[in-house]
Amino acid sequence: MKFRPCIDLHGGKVKQIVGGTLCDNASSSLVTNFQTDLSPAHYAAMYKSDNLSGGHVIMLGAGNEDAALSALNAYPQGLQIGGGITPSNAQKFIDAGASHVIVTSYVFNEGEIKWERLYKLIEVVSKEKLVLDLSCRKVGDNYFVAADRWQSITKEKLSIQLFERLSQYCDEFLIHAADVEGLKAGIDSYLVSLLADCSALPVTYAGGVRGLSDLDLVEKLGHGRVDITVGSSLDIFGGKLSFSDVVKWHKSRNP
């Protein structure tokens, strides 16, 4: 199991936002946990110095491309990038140093998987450089992929069958638990267990981590097969969880 670092960008700045409040039509409802004038490249260089690979840069809306490119330039092949990725811009980010591009809304469109769009992405960047983001919300007893900044619930239910179908076309999966992401109120334990059971490919869970005990819980429930990312709880993003302690935790499991 690995710790995957993150750099979330909004308005060209590194921020931590409560994911469920991010939408196009109600900017006044946006809840920001953290904002800094430190550059994305600063965080990327820090992750590089700690040899933390496979993290992700997420562009939350327009106006983030230059900031994202600066992070990729600071840590070539060490970071993945997502947010508005399409066949027309994917290769640019790969050329700039991204190890993978992360895609949700381009593929999960109008409530369903647009297979022709997925095939087009594969033609541009190849399966080996594509991460599919299956970030989800719980509806009843099931989880469904959420697109368009997690505001649109698709008909695609997280299941073994869905992961098996999509694993033919990507290298990894990234899943934010949108209902708890940014709240620092604990992980979605059932979702972590579900990911361990469903995905044969590398999968990273995000959402709700408060402390090292939550990392231990993900390790246990995920049987060591589910990686973890942490945002708002980290002291480098204004939280109380020591980033250096998380790095030590990671290195104890990945010597």
3D architecture notes:
- There is one protein chain.
- With 255 residues, the chain is α/β, with parallel strands linked by helices.
- The protein has a single domain (3-253), classed as TIM Barrel (Alpha-Beta Barrel), CATH 3.20.20.
- Helix content is 29%, strand content 26%.
- It has helices at 40-49, 65-74, 90-95, 115-125, 160-166, 189-198, 212-221, 243-253; strands at 3-4, 6-10, 13-17, 32-36, 55-59, 79-82, 100-103, 108-109, 112-113, 130-133, 136-139, 142-147, 152-157, 172-176, 203-206, 226-229.
- It has an eleven-stranded mixed sheet. Strands 11-12-13 form a three-stranded antiparallel sheet, with no helix packed on it. A two-stranded antiparallel sheet has the order 8-9.
- Helix 1 runs parallel beside helix 2 (65-74).
- It is globular.
- The N and C termini lie close together (11 Å).
Please state roughly what percent of the residues sit in beta strands, choosing from under 5%, 5-15%, 15-25%, 25-35%, 35-45% or over 45%. Answer: 25-35%
User: Structural class from helices and strands?
Assistant: alpha/beta
Oligomer: single chain
* Beta-strand segment tally: 16
Please give the domain count. Answer: 1
